[in-house]
Amino acid sequence: MKFFADTAIAEDIRELNDYGLLDGVTTNPSLVAKSGRSFVEVVGEICQIVDGPVSAEVAATDYDGMIREGRFLAAIANNVVVKLPLTLPGLKACRRLRQEAIAVNVTLCFSANQALLAAKAGASYISPFIGRLDDLNLDGMALIRDIRAIYDNYGFATEILAASIRHANHVKEAALAGADVATIPPAVIRSLANHALTDKGLEQFIADWAATGQTIG
Ligand code: E4P
């Protein structure tokens, strides 16, 4: 499963990229607002840091506006993926931008039927929002499993990008459900490396080694 960082904070992206853990980045208008920077400037910087796909979302909701903004965003760098909302105009814009060989991430997906439409529109990625469904006492992970089954039934090439991930267990469950990609907040990516027994074991090894008085190198 590929890991995308779900953030517009360049410092976090740089750090995670340096660990070799990043396959790409997703942003959305709320994440860009949190960064406190200009959208175009921040997307340009992120595209320089990571080689992989960087999702940048349109603000327009009408077809012509989405096409205009999508073309503009795609021209920022060749790893930009244009993020479009899962609406009928968004699906029409998806089809058009894909015909122009522009990569598209269809976002705000909350049902398997929506995901089916995005695949039929030729989306490069579909973003089902797990956490926001869980927030409503629905089963976000069941949506990932349903989309996986439907896409496999028909051989759709659209990649399932598990989004709205809130904790480490979401990452494991998304991997078990067969998501192609998980977009994960930086703090959650870091937390995946943590285990109390790792810390305890390391402490013991360091103490035992120090007792021998040996050195390496
Ligand atoms: C990413 O593409 C989504 O916009 C993001 O994962 C949404 O996460 P949230 O539901 O925690 O805001």
Automatic annotation (TrEMBL):
Active site: K83 (schiff-base intermediate with substrate)
E.C. designation(s): 2.2.1.2
Catalytic activity: D-sedoheptulose 7-phosphate + D-glyceraldehyde 3-phosphate = D-erythrose 4-phosphate + beta-D-fructose 6-phosphate
UniProt function note: Transaldolase is important for the balance of metabolites in the pentose-phosphate pathway.
Origin: domain of life: Bacteria
A Pfam entry, by short name: TAL_FSA
InterPro entries, per the entry: Aldolase_TIM, TAL/FSA, Transaldolase_3B, Transaldolase_3B/F6P_aldolase, Transaldolase_AS, TSA/FSA_arc/bac
Keywords: Cytoplasm, Pentose shunt, Schiff base, Transferase
Pathway annotation: Carbohydrate degradation; pentose phosphate pathway; D-glyceraldehyde 3-phosphate and beta-D-fructose 6-phosphate from D-ribose 5-phosphate and D-xylulose 5-phosphate (non-oxidative stage): step 2/3
Source species: Spiribacter pallidus
Protein name: Probable transaldolase
Localization terms from the record: Cytoplasm
